[in-house]
Amino acid sequence: MMINDCRQQKGTATPDKAFRDMRALKESQSIIVSGESGAGKTESTKYILRYLCESWGCHAGPIEQRILDANPVLEAFGNAKTMRNNNSSRFGKFIEIHFSNKFSVVGGFISHYLLEKSRICSQSRGERNYHIFYQLCAGAPVELKKKLHLSSPDKFQYLSKGCTQYFTSQETEKLLNKDSISSDQCLKGSLHDPMLDDIRNFLALDKALNNMGLSASERQNIYTVVAAVLHLGNVSFEDNPDDCKGGCRLAPGAAEVLNIIGSLLGVDAQYLRQSLLSRVMQTSKGGAKGTIYMVPLKVHEAQNARDALAKALYSRLFDFIVQCINKSIPFSSSSYYIGVLDIAGFEYFQVNSFEQFCINYCNEKLQQFFNERILKEEQTLYEKEGLNVRKIDYVDNQDCLELLESKGSGIFDLLDEESRLPKSSHTHFTSTVHASNNGHFRLDVPRKSKLKYHREIRDNEGFLIRHFAGAVCYETVSFIEKNNDALHASLESVILEAENIFVQNLFKNESTSQQTRGKLNFNSVGSKFRSQLQELMAKLRNTGTHFVRCIKPNFRMVDHCFEGNQILIQLRCSGMASVLELMQQGYPSRAQFSDLYAMYKSYLPPDLARLDPRLFCKALFKALGLNEKDFCFGLTKVFFRPGKFAEFDQIMKSDPQNLALLVKKVQKWLLISRWKKTIWCTLSVIKCK
């Protein structure tokens, strides 16, 4: 177990320790990178991966380079500008770097979790959609943009609600075409961040995809789907006064957009239009069984259907891209791996929805794991080894996890139960949550929030949860919709019949062929995420664990600004204050007597190397003259104060002259020790007589 500031030598300390532990213990390792949004998790992860690949790869050969090439690809499709972070990961990833039995890199594998799909259709003011949309508009060749009918971000509804400015440098800003620039870009200019440049990032993305083995036509297929998602947002609807059932029709100009989408995806525009404006239903009871009829959709229902299709297209494209990355970094056999977890940090905004609920649940699970590995297991070990270390108290968040995941009364189960009802509603779900967990310390009504905005939320439209990192008020209005990952069969059929084989294949593997025509099945997002998280936690528990805690120096995203109070809050909420106290009082480094014996016996002459491991260590430490406050002998291990094991190791690996002097000291101490023991035994015998 290790906690490190990942900025030390650009993040080399932790991966170096993980690799050495893997080699010494012959056990796979995990590095958990955590912290608030904007604290530096993604950048730390990149440093860690680069260090592992460049240090123990074949001089950045094809496999290692492809592992590194995954970064610009995943960032383009999975990262976005938020109010707190210009390059915020809106999904979680666990990147495994696999090693041979000779400890060289042989391949990798990426698992991804909980892509924020709601961002595809809307963003808050000042935030952006996923980087790829802007990279494509700014950096794609003119011919490709013309073919995909792309223009400036403010011309697309899925981008115009948020920030429509590009990230550029002084050099690349001059390369922007006039028809690609939004009105906001003209007024305010470009956004600037040393890590982001939409034009250069598109070129890096295209190169990385090419390095992974994707042909020019395959890359164009990817960009085509991205463009189709953008155009879908421009399909608008209006009430149809001629429809007595309250249905809607396409707004002026929408038919032309549908034709563009049809040509991009290879689908029949009329069939798509029909599936967006109406739902095909099939009777199962009453009347002629199997009768098919059309149900016209209202404006908001048609908008929801359009958005559901856009989210499905993008999320399946994201799945495909991760599969391509994994295919490009295969391994036939693997002895061990080092996994790096980079997942969204704890989030709390003015408006918190289902995405924040899932993200914060994940962070609760990771916090509990951190407490178990660092605090609980550490103190249990001290007690077992007979060390006299004062017990450190910490906040146990088990009760919060029970509120979220308990069978029957847990919020996730209650949400799934509500989602299966014929006439589900967010108000009924919220009321059930409060009724089922009445009096729970971690749960409260929105009016108990410190923020005025939250206090105006009705009791049946939200709830407040006291998380380990602070209280968060969730609005439940979209919980049921966001918890269902199923696409209506009518819309899915449109895609499955597409002439574009690439688009068709995105849905083939995920297709729910058993869906009743017209019926919207329920695929629980929450249940899927909990299952994925359970698998992830099992992996983490079966590996040696290292933690990188990223701390955000300020909340203004500016350089050289240190806000002490905010930093202290982060340290306390993350459990670091308790850890630092334990490290100060405890012994964070330790080694088995037998391991030390095996490590250093080759440096010593045969008469000393024959000693039993415990006596060997005792003789060694006495001879070195180490301060007894710097180490402590347990039953099976020797424990070191912070930094002292490194000093000890340095002494043992010093030049031969010093080592010869050390051997003499060990021999002298051993001789004196045995002489004293002989004298004591002799005196005891005389006394007995």
From TrEMBL:
Keywords: Actin-binding, ATP-binding, Motor protein, Myosin, Nucleotide-binding
PROSITE patterns: MYOSIN_MOTOR (PS51456)
GO biological process terms held by the UniProt record: actin filament organization; actin filament-based movement; animal organ development; system development; tissue development
Keyword ATP-binding listed: yes
UniProt cross-references to CDD domains, sorted A to Z: MYSc_Myo6
Gene Ontology terms for molecular function: actin filament binding; ATP binding; microfilament motor activity
Chain residues that bind ATP: G35, E36, S37, G38, A39, G40, K41, T42
GO CC terms: endocytic vesicle; myosin complex; plasma membrane
Domain Myosin motor stretches: 1-653
Annotated segments matching region Actin-binding: 533-555
The UniProt record lists the keyword Nucleus: no
PANTHER family per record: MYOSIN (PTHR13140), UNCONVENTIONAL MYOSIN-VI (PTHR13140:SF745)
Family, similarity comment: Belongs to the TRAFAC class myosin-kinesin ATPase superfamily. Myosin family.
Protein name in the entry: Myosin motor domain-containing protein
Organism expressing this protein natively: Larinioides sclopetarius
